[in-house]
């Protein structure tokens, strides 16, 4: 029942966060960061298991592992950027959160370039 | 008969494609569930859509034209993957063999160097260590980069020298005698020079890359 542990920890962190935010705002942010890191670490094993299943499926479907890895990387970047942006939003720095999301979008687009090139190449070949 | 065979092959290919498409769609649906709930979801969905398109198009084009190969699709489908593994294993074995040959070459060079240095007078025991760098040339194994020689000065005692040779008697005329340590230093310098010359000439090694240590 890991979910109970996480929810419990989340509720306790929220209570402390509210208390700390009124008295010592800087510690509240640190608490929020620590909780995010903890959840991420706790979920790491499970994420690995999911990725393993996807890799097996992709091998069965003869999918290029390079592209699947790119998709995984993109999802990972989205998650990390979301973590960072949410913490920034909690701290009240909306503009920094926006910049993090902007950087994540650009990185995702860069990672998607090989897929776009492959699609274009296919279309060019299809057209006689 | 031939028509039936072609039909069977075609059917098999289409069935493979359908199977793959089903797996790909399932895979993307699962991946969709993994996506975070933010405004980046839209972007990721576009990329995933492109990926699905590519995964479906590639085998279809493969059927339409046999010689077609997408250069951007540098992929590891299963059979190629297997071939890669076999090739990688072959390369690994070649690497191990080369490494062994390289070690043997180094050992032989060291032995040869020791034998050469033992021919120099006033050299007792010798030990050599050679730094060899690999050479990417057919027939060549390596090139000597640096040589370190440990020398114990003294006479080389072989089985043919059972009788101790008569030590030279130095008679100094005059008041000042050269100190023993200085004489020894002179001998050491001479031995060092000779060793460096021999190795440098024999192996075409630069003199600054030869180190002689007395012990």
How would you describe what is shown here?
The complex is a heterodimer of chains A (128) and B (215). Chain A is elongated. The mean pLDDT of chain A is 87. By secondary structure, chain A is an all-alpha fold. Chain A contains 4 helices and no strands. Chain B has 2 domains: 2-75; 108-162 and 181-214, Alpha-Beta Plaits (2-Layer Sandwich). In chain B, 57% of the residues lie in helices and 13% in strands. In chain B, strands 1-2-3 form a 3-stranded mixed β-sheet, covered by helices on one side. The termini of chain B are far apart. Chain B has 4 helices and 3 strands, in the order αααββαβ. Classes of the chains: A mainly alpha (128), B alpha+beta (215). The interface between A and B is large, with 40 and 40 residues.
- Spans where pLDDT lies below 50 across 5 or more residues of chain A: none
Q: Which percent range describes the beta-strand content of chain B?
A: 5-15%
Q: Count all strands of chain B and give the number.
A: 3
Q: Which chain pair has the greatest contact?
A: A-B, 40 and 40 residues
- Bin the helical content of chain A: over 70%
Major sheet: arrangement of strands of chain B: 1-2-3
Total helical segments of chain B? 4
